[in-house]
Design goal:
Mean pLDDT: 83
Strand order of the largest sheet: 1-2
Helix content: 10-25%
Structural class: alpha+beta
Radius of gyration: 12 Å
Number of strands: 2
């Protein structure tokens, strides 16, 4: 665990996705391999990011 700041968002330090891992992100950038080779970054709204964090899986915040 690290303090908030740039790290995973640009794949610096060892904070990267492994091949096949998925990540929900509210960033405005989505380049292939940006957060780790073979990882998948899904651009989501803040509401979806919050619902996903609480559920521990990708979740539609409208589903209640």
């Amino acid at each position: 665990w690290r303090e908030a700041g740039c790290s995973m968002c640009i794949g610096m330090n060892p904070d990267t996705l492994s091949a096949g891992e998925r990540c929900a992100s509210t960033t405005n950038r989505n380049f292939e391999g940006r957060q780790g080779r073979g990882g998948r970054t899904h651009l989501v709204s803040p509401a979806t990011a919050a619902a996903t964090a609480l559920a521990g899986r990708f979740t539609d915040p409208r589903s209640g």
